[in-house]
Amino acid sequence: MVKNGIIINTDLAFEYSTVQVEASTVIDSVKNPISGEIKAKSIRELILDDAEIIAADTRYELNEGIGRRGSVEQLTSTHTIA
Prior knowledge:
Layout: E1 2-5, E2 18-23, E3 26-31, E4 35-40, E5 42-47, E6 58-62, E7 66-70, E8 78-80
Parallel strand pairs: 1-2, 2-4, 3-5, 4-6, 5-7
Antiparallel strand pairs: 6-8
């Protein structure tokens, strides 16, 4: 669990992890989280490229949405990928 964390210069974060993250910063990239919740200012790149990962099992609450993304729609504010 990360609470009120500062995540900097991190790419491919949380790959194959169950997460509970509350970050006050932009996360450079997130790849294939298994489940949980990610709250952050934004995510620059979201990569969901493993067909065995159920994207809806991870909830994203982002202030500014996502920059580049693979296999997902643009996210804004609070959004659960389905």
